[in-house]
Amino acid sequence: MGAGKTTIGRMLAKQMGKTFYDSDHEIERRTGVRIPLIFELEGEAGFRKRETAMIEELCQLDNIVMATGGGVVLNEQNRLYLKQHGHIIYLRANVHDLWIRTRNDKTRPLLQGGDIKQKLEKLYSERDPIYTELATCIVDTGSQSATEISHFIEQKLKNLNL
């Protein structure tokens, strides 16, 4: 959360002449409701079920750049879909930067109520090892601009002959 997946994904897709999809935005578009409401009505398990169906569907498309929710890698089926159908770019940010970017955001269900920084630390400790293992490329997002990051990723992907 807050690493820049949507912003950088959009830029990268435009640079590379690909279509951009954000799995969370697609879920919202199709259901007609925001993700916080899905969490409220169906819980995290209900949302994750919808997320897996969306990942499976989007992985069938060609010539796309996809941004996913940060927790997508917690589900083994999602990891398989993503790994089999593309390259996983891990936009890594430290917890302090993530806290700065998300501390006032009321639309992130997993950060509501309690100590946001502590929640981010827990999520990071759960997810970082999985992303590190899965990633084709790891990009630390610290002081670089979104433009610099998207150009760096584009070059990495070109080096992989994509």
- CATH class designation: Alpha Beta
Strand content: 5-15%
Instruction: Extract low-pLDDT stretches.
Output: none
**CATH architecture level-2 label:** 3-Layer(aba) Sandwich
Strand order of the largest sheet: 1-2
Coarse morphology: globular
What's the N-to-C terminus distance?
A: 27 Å
- Total strand segments: 4
Helix percentage range:
55-70%
Biggest sheet record? 2 strands, parallel
**Helix/sheet category:** mainly alpha
CATH superfamily: P-loop containing nucleotide triphosphate hydrolases
> CATH topology, what is it called?
Rossmann fold
Description:
The strands form 2 sheets. This protein has a two-stranded parallel sheet. The longest helix has 24 residues, at 35-58. It has one domain: 3-Layer(aba) Sandwich (Rossmann fold). By secondary structure, it is mainly alpha-helical. It has helices at 5-16, 23-31, 35-58, 76-85, 95-102, 116-134, 146-159; strands at 19-22, 64-67, 89-92, 137-140. The chain starts with a helix and ends with a helix. Helix 1 packs across helix 7. The relative contact order is 0.17.
Key words describing this protein structure:
mainly alpha; globular; two-stranded parallel ribbon; 4 strands; Rossmann fold; 162 residues; two-stranded parallel sheet
Summarize the structure.
It is built from 7 helices and 4 strands. It has about 160 residues and is mostly helical.
Topology:
Blueprint: H1 5-16, E1 19-22, H2 23-31, H3 35-58, E2 64-67, H4 76-85, E3 89-92, H5 95-102, H6 116-134, E4 137-140, H7 146-159
Parallel strand pairs: 1-2, 3-4
Helix pairs in contact: 1-7, 2-3, 5-6
